[in-house]
Amino acid sequence: MSDLIGHSVNAIDTPALVLDLDMMERNLRTMAAFAERHQVLLRPHAKMHKSAELAKLQIAAGAVGVCVQKTSEAEALVAGGVHNIFITNEVVALHKLTRIAALTRVLAPQGGKLAICVDSMEGIKRLADCMNDGRIASGITSAIDVFIEINVGQNRCGVEPGLPAIALALEIRKHPALNFAGLQAYHGGAQHMRSPTERQAAIVGAVKAVSDTRDLIEAQGMKVGLVTGAGTGTAPLEAASKLYGELQAGSYLFMDADYAANEQAVGQPRFKHALFVKTQVISVHAHHVVCDAGHKSHAIDSGLPKVHAFSSRSELDYSNGGDEHGILKPAAGSTRLPSLGSMLWLIPGHCDPTVNLHDMMIGVRGGLLKGIVERIIKVDGRGALT
After folding, report:
1. Residue 103 domain-assigned?
2. Strand partners of residue 67
3. Count of the separate structural domains present in the chain
4. What would the DSSP string read from start to end of 100-146?
């Protein structure tokens, strides 16, 4: 695929995952400037792009590091030269915790850092045991930053706010290989609430849960060093709280159709679509056409993709054609259909799992119509599920 570099966007075969580098870099600068203006740290979620190259680009632009969700994602990024990683998830399998302990020893001589979440006493004890075993065997006395995850409304992982978190903080303090670093407070469900009012109400509740929990822990003589969380949909709210010290937004770099459906709040930074699936019309009929980008090229958990419009609105609607095909029909108010062989651009419903379907992203400079392929970006963490 490297032989594409320097060639016109027209040379890209279909279907293919394409990055508009100009829009991506605009998004990168916008979020970095937002974090700096609000005096909060930025730790983008790399589970979105799964690329060491893009993680390093984000760090060069001011991010303190990146987040991942899986042990294998962390390993892939460390292998790619990323040295500050937070696993924003619970890990309880002993063989995975052994791998995490090994990563801390890989990173320590390079001045790197690894962090992880916990939400149970057993999880803390298992992590401490594996860290201690590694310290004894290697002689490297590196510690791992540990964040207590609290449930601020997602109702997924996380200990309940308030008193239940105190016992976990006290347990972490018992283990020299564990450093109590703060609270993980991410409300994923709030990211895609459509109205600003809904999102604000959700984050007001999250902030109260965090504030109450922090006060209870600090009353025990322990410092809550950092509150971290937030996503692309709510980052301005967490930043304005003066309680969160770090933002974990990830999708802002690429954006997707689902995030674009959110109603924008006043003062919220604006991000542009940068991730597209290039596709070609392969069959033409009286009332519809068929393209070669089916579900194997884009995720549908957040809805079907939208057809990118280079004007004010798209004249085509995408509908389900199965694994290999998409069916395109005229949108309301339109009768036009593209001709056989036409190239179209789809905006995925959800960027994260769409990226995970591809080995590479093709970076284009100069726009989708007349751009030139500038780089091929490897998806280092593709299939990193463990």
Report:
1. yes
2. 45, 86
3. 1
4. HHHHHHHHGGGT-EEEEEE-SHHHHHHHHHHHHHHHHHH-----EEE
Q: Please, what is the Cα angle at 27 between 192 and 88, to 5 degrees?
A: 55
pTM for the whole structure? 0.96
Whether 4 maps to a domain, the answer reads no
Query: Helix, strand or coil for residue 382?
Result: coil
Q: Are 351 and 314 a contacting pair, CB within 8 Å?
A: no
Domain presence at residue 206 = yes
Read off the CATH number of the domain in which 40 is found: 3.20.20.10
From the number of C-beta atoms within 10 Å of its C-beta (0-12, 13-18, 19+), residue 270 rates as exposed
- The CA distance from 66 to 87, in Å, is 9
Sequence-ordered alpha helix ranges (H) in the chain: 21-37, 52-60, 71-79, 94-107, 121-138, 163-173, 196-218, 235-240, 257-260, 351-355
Sequential pLDDT tens for the chain (386 residues): 889 999 999 999 999 999 999 999 999 999 999 999 999 999 999 999 999 999 999 999 999 999 999 999 999 999 999 999 999 999 999 999 999 999 999 999 889 999 999 999 999 999 999 999 877 778 778 889 999 999 999 999 999 999 999 999 999 999 999 999 999 999 999 999 999 999 999 999 999 999 999 999 999 999 999 999 999 999 999 999 999 999 999 999 999 999 999 999 988 999 999 999 999 999 999 999 999 999 999 999 999 999 999 876 788 999 999 999 999 999 988 888 999 999 999 999 999 999 999 999 999 999 999 999 999 999 999 999 99
What span, in angstroms and rounded, lies between the C-alpha atoms of 255 and 271?
A: 7
Tell me if 82 sits within 8 A of 111, measured CB to CB. Answer: no
The residues, ordered by sequence, that sit 6+ positions from 247 with a Cβ below 8 Å of its Cβ are 35, 40, 41, 42, 43, 228, 229, 230, 235, 238, 239
Closest CA to 359 of 76, 95, 31, 157: 76
Which residue range is the domain that position 243 belongs to?
23-254
Is 108 within the bounds of a domain?
Answer: yes
